[in-house]
Amino acid sequence: MAILPVTAHAHGAEVLQVLCALAASFGACLLALWLVPALRPHRWMGALGCVLGAVAAGWATRGLPFQAQRSLVTAAMVLGPLLGAAAAVGWPLLRRRCLRGNDGR
Asked: Which of 28, 39, 76, 91 is 20 to 30 Å from 67 by CA-CA measure?
């Protein structure tokens, strides 16, 4: 998050919206992982997915001009951590369910 303004070639209030959106996304992701009982066994994997999702979103938008693509950069910074955590938690659960079969046991 600290290098986002440098990589986006923007400064000041322009980047504040993106940083606040990223912080809110992290907060919502981590709150859900720690408070939802079904997600508790996978909280550390989800937290790692959240961080990796934010890094991937920053890497994917690093070359975009910030002024022209502000909404895309903001959307990537919000959805990246959420999708990363969902994938990190959902993949093992889905894999375990598919390996057991569809009988529900």
From this structure: 28
